[in-house]
Each structure stands twice: as structure tokens, then as C-alpha cells.
């Protein structure tokens, strides 16, 4: 069995022809640089900037390897040749040599100057986004990412997969949102944060930038042509996801990680960038602009869109905040000694409690939990709140749901 | 061993006048009197030894935290549904510790502990305060440091600061990372005082560092023995001097930053927190304005040791003495100008460009040192003692550490590598592969001088080889983890990275094994080691003139310097048999030498 960390290497074997037939030992597919890149990075860069950066890295690596071998070769050779032997009288030798010392100051300096300029030019390409790029707002919060598209669309799709190659790996402890971006199109992500500093890193694109609570920054990339033969999975109801032409839709996924430490679940603050064909993207963005369906279904969508899922589970497991399972219709105790009865946790009193908890989270703290939530004041509309309350009071989340239809309410005896 | 000479040679006039002084280790009466003597001593050697044990204890604590970090990373954190339909979380090494059901908190505290202890309580004080304190006055031929009482005060300040920081840990842990980045450090854990205590501890530790640095600078300027010009000083002294200058100049900035942090935390003065009108990037500038020079406070003493161990065990004058001395000073100077390279992903393009250029500048004196050390071996007479093995390991690991700094200093490639495991691997190759390995070289080199006992060279060499292999297994994999997309400070990771993480964890166990071997070697040496001669390695710097262990006043007579510290071709080392250290044929008349 091949250890899985070797697979990127095996993938580099050229499909046809030898090394030289593809344009030289270094640069060819399957050549030295290609193999080195696949081993080091687990794959070829997914944007032009990424491939340029890898190219520069490769040359720096070669220069470093040269000097490392030179220094260690000298060390090993001298250590062997001039090892001490009993009675051996050492020779005299020079203890400095101006020309030699100048040489090993000046030659590295020249190489360093070259490295600096190559790095600076590449950096300018990497951080200054083109004016014509599609701009998507990406907002970081502890511990999730949210994307808002130019037409107001938000991404509500998510996965718990922890491997892009293995659909069976859906056992992450937290949902990972999926952000759709169009193929072969410059995309600028405008970064901001709602709490502490985060950093948006797309390893496949070889770029990252920090997201701050007090300023906008950006990351941009041009999603390459889709590679591989993966097509979009069927939707939740089992209907196949097809493009306008009726064919399955190809896509390529890229991991996003938060690279600036931000607290408890820093390591779960991930996302997936999904590159899809332009035509499909257009259709998807229009579709995603408004969650559709009943209040409950929309509430289900907002639960993820608004990032509630980062701290509140819906299956009863204890996370950073109280679970939403059986919140509605059940009594609760607060840290200040007060509490609410089961009856108070229904109807308008529940709605008022929920609103207070969202806008002023410190007002009532459920026993056994820290006071950690940030206020959502100004970040949740009445409509969105209505949907969330409908979701919480539905049979999906509580065993004592609010009546969902007239049939749920017994008819009074006729007088 | 043929190199150990246990004879009592009076050739330097040491005992000629019949005046006998005891070793500084000699107990002063009963147990209580001896303890009191140590607690109130102003002898730089005793303070150095107390620092040695205090820092090694901190190294042990920080190392345990590191092992815990690697253990957690053996498997990623996953949520699975078992056959009975129950949901459970796997992959948490410390699941028995329940903190609101989210055990990543414990991992976050472990890496904070590891970083804070290793940086503030181990690496920064280790070489200067332990070996530097012991050796610097001996090497310049002085009786003590310039301000012996300040020296003792610095030890107590160090212990107080460490207790504060450890108290913060026992009180429940701090999870900000050793960098205390705002606004996380000021907003997390609201209502509690853990971060304030931890920061206060670091603040106090800073003063200990300043006092030590000040003492060394004045000692080097004022207390050199007659005949010792600046360029007759051992290169150890040059490098310790350079790092002392940084300690004095940079540490106050950290103190100011931490005071501002405490003001924000306690009195809600908005300096860094954007909700109060502050700017979190300002904190990063302040923090790294100290902490980048601090990196050189950490590595320069490592280089200091290597300057001595390579010269003595290869019996060669360090090639290009002046270039090495000036490269220490220029590293110290440039170190103040490169802090912005910690912010390539958070500041503007122009600032990044300037800091990138300045960062490359620091590579030049470092490269010069590497070439000079390597060339020193040429035509030497190299003995593979433990200090020499560790010096060779240092050259190998520090070369990797230095060269992997290049893609981090290069802006275009750093965008990917910033805050990834590549950075983690890089600074461990520099800080551990550089400084800690050099510390071990120095400890084995001066152990006979400090304690007057020899150790088993065979077992020490075995330990060295295990540490070297374990180190590379642990940290080389982390370069590849980083380039493949592993971010720093993650308690969990994607499936594809597990194999590499497991290799790294196995490496950490090898490191543990290697350090245990050293521990046994040292304990055995203290209990049952053979007595060491005054000059077991044939060194020429002044500390080898005096007894092992040195007498309380260091030298029987004030030494007068008549030869350079590396004139192995012309001088038979003190207390040594010329047969063991044969000299090359003298130069013909009129030849000026090199």
C-alpha cells in the first residue's frame, strides 16, 4: 500500500511521453519542478498567481539546496579529512582571506536582491485585485465564514466532509460552508470580521490575507478551468443537479482555512471554494439570493447563513452555546438564579426571550454556559428572526412544537 | 580519556604562594547555612547555576506541553455516530477534560503554555543568564559582573515573573498564544484575570532580562583583564554582548505594550480594541518591535557558543574573526528594522516591500557566519566530542532554518506560507535546531568547568544522535505539512494530513527519549562522574586557566592576557600536556603570521 502522503507524487507521472518530450527536465509536466511542486504542495497551484509563486519558490529552493549541499559537503569532508589522530601535528593555515570573505558576502547578496524583486513583483500581482473582478463580501466571525454576493445572495450550502476526495468523510464536528465562484473569472473577496482577527487562506491559490474588525482587506484569485471529473451531487430531495443544457455540472473544490488564531474552534473555521462553470454560477447566484419555501425552511437556511450553527447544535449535543433542540416549550434556569417555565417558553414570551438573547446575549445566561456570544443587533432583520423562531418552534427542533396547522389545535366544544 | 588532565599544575603561579581558595561549590557549613548562602549569593557563578536549573525546569514544563500538543494532533477531531446511534467526538487526546464540551480549549492552552514558557522563561534567559552569567566574567578575566547585586535581583525577578505566569496557568489556563494578539486577548475570557496575570508575569520577566543585559554590557566595557583589547575577546563574548544590547534596548518596548494591554483590559482605555476606537494592527507593530529583536536575543547566544565549541574542538582560530564579530553586531542592529515581516498579510504593500528588503539584509551576516564556521574546520584537528557533535548538528539544522527563511522573506511566496506549519518548522529549526542545540553543545562543553565532573562521552553522543534524528523527524515533516496547507494553532485538520502529523508525533517521542538520555548522563556525572581537569578540551580562553570548578574569586591572580583566545598554532593550552596538543612548526623568522 502506498502511504497517502505519496499520492500527489504518483499523480505526477506523465500520461504519455518522457520527461523531455514535454518541454524540458525542469518545467515539464512530470519534470523536476512539477514533481517537486506536487510533493510539496499536494498539487499544482489553482491560479496563475499560485503557479508563478510556486515557480519562484522552486528557484529559491534550488538556490537553497545548492548552498546547503555546499556547506554540508564542506563540513562533512573537512570533518573526515581533518579528524584528530593521536600524535598528528596540525598544519598551519590562514585564519582569514579577504577575497574569499568578500565573495561569500557579495554573491549571496546578489541572489537576495533578485529574490526580493521577484517576490515584490509577484506580491503586487497577488494582493492588488483587478478593478473588474467580481466582488464578494466575506465576513469572518468566531468560528465561521459567511459570503454575501453582489445581488445579496448568501451561501447556505454546507458539508461536514473533511476530505475533498472522499465523500464518505462527512464527520467533521462543524458545518463547513461552500462558496460558489465562477470558473476562469477574477474574483475579489472583500474581507471583514465581526469580532477578532481572522485570516482567509486558500492553500490551492497560494494566497491569504487577514480579516479585521475595523477595516476592509481583500484576497483575490482567478479560479482556473475546472479540473477533474467531479460533478455536483443531487440536491437534498434527491433530484439531480443539472446545468441548463441538462448535463451534470462539473466543479473543483478548494479548502479555505482560518490562519489567524481566533479561539476555541479556530481549527473548525473552514470553508470550501467551489469553482463552477460561469453559466451555472449565474443561475446559482440568482437562485441563492433569497431562501425559498416556508418560514421553517427559510429559518433552517438562516440558521446556517447567519452562523448560528457555529455555536448551537440542533441535535442536542452540547456545544459552545445551548443546543436548539428542545429549547422551545421546555423550562430553563439562568445563572442569575431566575428561570423560565415551560409555558413561558412558548408563544410571545419565547419570542421576546429569543430576541433579547440575540440582541443582548449577556442579559440571561443559561446555566452551565459561558457569557461568550456577541450581539446580533443590526445583523438580523425582523423577517429573519421570524423565520428562526418558526424553525425553533417546529417539530424539527422541539418535541413540544407550536401548532403548525389548525388540525394541531383541538376544536372547542360547541355551545 | 587522553584529553583529561587531572594533574595539579602550578605553572601559572596559581598555588605558588601557598594561598588556597576553595571551589565555589564548597558548602558553607550545614544545610541551612548552605541554602542561605546560595539564596543570598552575589557570586555570578552561583547565580548562573541557579539560572541553569531554573531554565532547565522551565524547559521541562514547556517540553511537556509540546508533547501534549503533538499527542492531540495524532488524530483529527471528528464527530461520529456509533452503532447505537449515539453521537460522539473522537480524536481528542484530552477528552476526559470537560470544559463546556469543547476540548479544543485545552489544546489551545497547551500550545500557549508551550510558546510562552519556551520563549519568555526558557530560550531568552537560558544561554545568557545561565552560561553567560557563569562564563562572561571568567572569559574577560574579571572577578564578577559589574553589578553583582543587580545580578541576584534579576534572578529573583525572573522567578517572580515565572511564578506569576505559572499561577495564571494553574488558575485555569490562558489560550491566547504567546503573541497575545488583540482583540482576542482583550475580549476573550471576559471578567477573568488570567490573561492579565500572564501578561504581568511576562512584564516582570522583561525586567530580569534588562538587568542581565545591562550587567553584561557594563562588564564587557569596564572589567576586561589587562591586555585584553576588544579584538582579543573570545567571540562568545562578542555575541553575548550583542544580544545584551538588544535586551536593554528592545525589552522596554514590550513592557510598554504590555502595560497598554493591561490598561485596555482593566480600565477600558481603547488602544488596540476597535470597539473602543483602537487598532489591533498597532498591537502587532508594538509586539513585534520587541519580539523580532527578541528572536536575535535568542539566536545570538547560540551562535556565541558555536564560536567557542567549533574553535576549541577543531583547534582552529575562527576563520575571519573580525567578520564574525561584526556580523554579530550587524545582526543586532538590523534586527530592530525587520519586525514588519510578521505582518505581510496584514499591512499595506509599501510597508511589506520595505520590510521584505530589510529582512533579506539580515540574511547576509548570517550567511557570512555559516561560511566562516564551515571554513574554520579546514585543516583543523577535529575531535568528535559531544560538544563537537552538537556543533555539527547545529550547522546542519541552522542551515536549514536559515535557508527556509528565504521563501518566508520573499513576499510572493510568503502569502501562502504565512501562519502555516512551514513557519512553525522554520522557527523550530532556528530556535530549537539553533539555540537549544547550541545550548546543549555549550552545556557539554562547559559542564566539566561548572561542576568539575566529567560525563560519559559515549552516552552523551548517543543522546545527541537520538535528539538529532528525533528533531528532524518531528520538524522536517512540518515543512511539508505547511506547504500542503496546514495552518498554525489548529487542534484538528483535514484527513489528507494525518499521516504526516503522525510522523511528526513519533519524532516528538524520539526527542523525549534523547533528552532523557542526557538527563541520566548529567545526573550520573554529578553523582559518580570522574573529576574533570582544569582544561579537559585544551581551550585557550581565560576560563580554562582557572580550576574546575573555579575558585570563589575566579582566578588566583588577576590574569594578564598575553595571547589571543584562538592561538592554537602557537600556544600550548594551560594545564595541558604538549604531547596531547602538538604545535605546528614555528613560523620562520620575520614572518608576521596571519
Give your account of this protein's structure.
The complex is a heterodimer of chains A (415) and B (594). By secondary structure, chain A is an alpha+beta fold. Chain A folds into three domains: 4-73 and 100-127, no CATH class; 134-163 and 172-288, Sandwich (Immunoglobulin-like), CATH 2.60.40; 295-404, Orthogonal Bundle (Cytochrome Bc1 Complex, Chain D, domain 2), CATH 1.10.760.10. Chain A is 30% helix and 15% strand. In chain A, the strands form three sheets. A six-stranded mixed beta sheet of chain A has the order 3-4-10-9-6-7. Chain A has a four-stranded mixed beta sheet with strand order 2-1-5-8, with no helix packed on it. Mean pLDDT of chain A is 86; it is low at 12-23. With 594 residues, chain B is mainly α. Chain B has a single domain (31-79, 87-544), classed as Cytochrome C Oxidase, Chain A, CATH 1.20.210. Chain B is 61% helix and 1% strand. Chain B contains 16 helices and two strands. In chain B, strand 1 (78-81) and strand 2 form a beta hairpin. The two termini of chain B are 33 Å apart. The model of chain B is unreliable at 1-20 (pLDDT under 50). At the A-B interface, helix 2, helix 3, helix 4, strand 7 and strand 9 of A face strand 1, helix 3, helix 8, helix 9 and helix 10 of B.
A few lines on this structure:
Chain A has 415 residues and is α+β, with helices and mostly antiparallel strands.
Q: Secondary-structure map with pairings?
A:
The complex is a heterodimer of chains A (415) and B (594).
Chain A: H1 7-10, H2 32-41, H3 48-81, H4 98-127, E1 134-141, E2 144-148, E3 158-159, E4 176-182, E5 186-193, E6 198-202, E7 207-211, E8 217-222, E9 252-258, E10 270-276, H5 278-288, H6 295-305, E11 332-333, E12 339-340, H7 347-359, H8 382-392
Parallel strand pairs in A: 1-5, 4-10
Antiparallel strand pairs in A: 1-2, 3-4, 5-8, 6-7, 6-9, 9-10, 11-12
Chain B: H1 31-39, H2 44-72, E1 78-81, E2 87-90, H3 104-140, H4 148-170, H5 184-187, H6 194-222, H7 235-267, H8 280-314, H9 321-334, H10 349-376, H11 386-403, H12 405-409, H13 411-417, H14 421-451, H15 457-483, H16 498-528
Antiparallel strand pairs in B: 1-2
Helix pairs in contact in B: 2-3, 2-4, 2-16, 3-6, 3-7, 3-8, 3-14, 4-6, 6-7, 7-8, 7-9, 8-11, 8-14, 9-10, 11-14, 11-15, 14-15, 15-16
Amino acid at each position: 500500500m502506498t502511504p497517502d502522503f505519496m499520492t500527489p507524487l504518483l499523480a505526477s507521472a506523465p500520461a504519455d511521453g518522457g520527461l523531455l518530450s514535454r518541454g524540458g527536465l525542469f518545467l515539464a509536466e512530470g519534470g523536476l519542478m512539477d514533481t517537486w511542486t506536487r510533493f510539496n504542495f499536494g498539487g499544482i497551484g489553482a491560479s496563475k498567481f499560485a503557479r508563478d509563486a510556486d515557480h519562484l519558490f522552486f528557484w529559491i529552493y534550488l538556490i537553497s539546496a545548492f548552498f546547503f549541499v555546499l556547506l554540508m559537503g564542506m563540513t562533512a569532508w573537512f570533518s573526515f579529512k581533518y579528524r584528530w589522530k593521536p600524535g598528528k601535528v596540525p598544519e598551519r593555515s590562514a585564519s582569514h582571506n579577504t577575497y574569499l570573505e568578500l565573495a561569500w558576502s557579495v554573491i549571496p547578496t546578489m541572489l537576495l536582491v533578485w529574490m526580493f524583486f521577484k517576490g515584490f513583483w509577484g506580491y503586487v500581482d497577488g494582493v492588488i485585485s483587478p478593478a473588474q473582478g467580481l466582488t464578494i463580501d466575506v465576513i469572518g466571525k468566531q468560528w465561521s465564514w459567511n459570503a454575501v454576493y453582489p445581488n445579496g445572495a448568501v451561501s447556505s450550502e454546507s458539508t461536514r466532509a473533511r476530505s475533498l476526495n472522499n465523500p464518505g468523510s462527512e464527520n467533521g464536528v462543524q458545518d463547513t460552508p461552500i462558496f460558489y465562484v465562477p470558473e476562469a473569472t477574477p474574483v475579489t473577496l472583500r474581507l471583514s470580521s465581526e469580532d477578532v482577527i481572522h485570516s482567509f487562506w486558500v492553500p490551492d491559490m497560494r494566497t491569504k490575507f487577514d480579516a479585521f474588525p475595523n477595516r476592509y482587506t481583500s484576497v483575490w484569485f482567478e479560479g482556473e478551468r475546472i479540473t477533474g471529473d467531479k460533478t455536483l451531487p443531487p440536491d437534498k430531495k434527491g433530484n439531480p443537479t443539472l446545468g441548463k443544457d441538462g448535463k451534470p455540472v462539473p466543479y473543483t473544490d478548494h479548502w479555505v482555512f482560518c490562519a489567524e488564531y481566533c479561539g476555541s474552534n479556530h481549527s473548525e473555521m473552514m470553508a470550501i471554494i467551489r469553482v463552477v462553470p460561469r453559466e451555472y454560477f449565474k443561475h446559482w447566484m440568482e437562485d441563492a439570493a433569497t431562501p425559498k419555501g416556508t418560514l421553517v425552511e427559510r429559518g433552517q437556511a438562516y440558521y446556517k447563513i447567519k452562523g448560528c450553527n457555529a455555536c448551537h447544535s440542533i441535535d442536542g449535543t452540547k456545544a459552545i452555546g445551548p443546543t436548539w433542540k428542545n429549547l422551545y416549550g421546555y423550562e430553563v434556569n439562568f445563572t442569575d438564579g431566575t428561570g423560565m417555565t415551560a409555558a413561558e417558553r412558548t408563544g410571545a414570551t419565547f419570542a421576546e426571550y429569543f430576541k433579547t438573547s440575540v440582541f443582548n446575549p449577556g442579559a440571561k445566561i443559561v446555566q452551565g454556559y459561558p457569557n461568550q456570544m456577541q450581539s446580533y443587533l443590526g445583523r438580523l432583520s425582523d423577517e429573519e428572526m421570524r423565520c428562526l423562531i418558526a424553525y425553533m418552534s417546529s417539530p424539527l427542533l422541539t418535541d413540544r412544537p407550536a401548532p403548525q396547522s389548525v388540525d394541531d389545535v383541538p376544536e372547542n366544544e360547541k355551545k | 580519556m587522553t584529553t583529561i588532565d587531572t594533574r595539579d599544575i602550578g605553572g601559572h603561579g596559581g598555588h605558588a604562594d601557598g594561598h588556597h581558595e576553595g571551589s565555589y561549590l564548597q558548602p558553607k557549613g550545614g544545610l541551612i547555612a548552605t541554602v542561605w548562602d546560595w539564596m543570598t549569593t552575589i557570586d555570578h557563578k552561583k547565580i548562573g547555576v541557579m539560572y541553569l536549573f531554573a531554565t532547565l525546569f522551565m524547559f521541562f514544563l514547556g517540553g511537556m506541553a509540546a508533547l501534549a500538543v503533538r499527542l492531540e494532533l495524532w488524530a483529527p477531531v471528528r464527530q461520529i455516530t456509533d452503532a447505537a446511534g449515539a453521537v460522539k467526538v473522537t480524536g481528542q487526546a484530552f477528552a476526559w477534560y470537560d470544559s463546556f464540551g469543547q476540548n479544543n480549549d485545552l489544546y489551545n492552552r497547551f500550545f500557549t503554555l508551550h510558546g510562552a514558557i519556551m520563549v519568555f522563561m526558557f530560550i531568552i534567559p537560558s544561554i545568557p543568564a545561565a552560561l553567560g552569567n557563569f562564563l562572561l566574567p571568567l572569559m574577560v578575566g574579571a572577578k564578577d559582573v559589574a553589578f553583582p547585586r543587580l545580578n541576584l535581583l534579576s534572578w529573583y525577578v525572573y522567578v517572580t515573573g515565572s511564578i506569576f505566569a505559572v499561577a495564571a496557568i494553574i488558575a485555569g489556563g490562558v489560550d491566547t498564544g504567546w503573541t497575545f494578539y488583540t482583540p482576542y486577548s482583550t475580549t476573550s475570557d471576559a471578567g477573568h484575570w488570567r490573561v492579565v496575570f500572564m501578561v504581568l508575569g511576562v512584564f516582570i520577566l522583561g525586567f530580569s532580562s534588562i538587568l542581565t543585559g545591562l550587567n553584561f554590557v557594563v562588564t564587557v566595557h569596564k572589567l576586561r583583564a589587562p591586555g585584553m583589547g576588544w579584538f582579543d575577546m573570545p567571540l562568545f563574548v562578542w555575541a553575548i554582548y550583542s544580544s545584551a544590547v538588544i535586551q536593554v534596548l528592545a525589552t522596554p518596548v514590550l513592557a510598554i505594550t504590555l502595560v497598554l494591554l493591561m490598561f485596555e483590559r482593566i480600565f477600558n482605555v481603547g488602544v488596540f480594541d476597535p470597539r473602543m476606537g483602537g487598532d489591533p494592527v498597532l498591537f502587532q507593530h508594538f509586539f513585534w518591535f520587541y519580539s523580532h529583536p527578541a528572536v536575535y536575543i535568542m539566536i545570538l547566544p547560540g551562535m556565541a557558543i558555536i564560536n567557542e565549541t567549533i574553535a576549541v574542538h577543531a583547534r582552529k582560530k575562527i576563520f575571519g574573526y573580525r567578520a564574525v564579530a561584526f556580523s554579530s553586531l550587524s545582526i543586532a542592529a538590523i534586527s530592530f528594522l525587520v519586525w514588519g515581516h510578521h505582518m505581510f498579510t496584514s499591512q499595506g504593500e509599501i510597508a511589506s516591500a520595505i520590510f521584505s528588503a530589510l529582512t533579506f539584509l539580515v540574511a547576509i551576516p548570517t550567511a557570512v557566519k555559516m561560511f566562516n564556521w564551515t571554513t574554520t574546520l579546514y585543516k583543523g584537528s577535529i575531535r568528535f566530542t559531544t560538544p563537537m557533535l552538537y556543533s555539527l548538528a547545529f550547522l546542519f539544522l541552522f542551515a536549514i532554518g536559515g535557508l527556509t527563511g528565504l521563501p518566508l522573506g520573499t513576499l510572493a511566496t510568503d502569502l501562502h506560507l504565512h501562519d502555516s506549519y512551514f513557519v512553525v518548522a522554520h522557527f523550530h529549526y532556528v530556535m530549537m535546531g539553533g539555540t537549544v542545540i547550541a545550548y546543549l553543545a555549550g552545556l557539554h562543553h562547559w559542564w566539566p568547568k561548572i561542576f568539575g565532573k566529567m560525563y560519559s562521552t559515549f552516552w552523551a553522543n548517543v543522546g545527541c544522535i537520538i535528539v538529532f534524528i528525533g528533531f528532524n523527524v518531528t520538524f522536517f515533516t512540518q515543512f511539508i505539512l505547511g506547504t500542503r496547507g496546514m495552518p498554525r494553532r489548529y487542534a484538528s485538520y483535514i484527513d489528507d494530513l494525518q499521516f504526516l502529523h503522525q510522523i511528526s508525533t513519533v519524532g516528538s517521542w524520539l526527542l523525549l527519549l534523547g533528552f532523557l538520555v542526557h538527563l541520566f548522563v548529567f545526573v550520573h556525572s554529578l553523582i559518580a562522574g570522574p573529576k574533570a581537569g582544569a582544561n579537559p578540551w585544551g581551550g585557550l580562553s581565560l576560563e580554562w586557566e582557572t580550576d574546575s570548578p573555579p575558585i570563589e574569586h575566579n582566578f588566583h591572580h588577576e590574569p594578564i592576557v598575553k595571547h589571543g583566545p584562538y592561538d592554537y598554532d602557537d600556544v600550548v593550552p594551560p594545564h595541558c600536556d604538549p604531547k596531547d596538543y602538538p604545535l605546528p612548526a614555528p613560523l620562520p623568522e620575520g614572518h608576521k603570521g596571519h
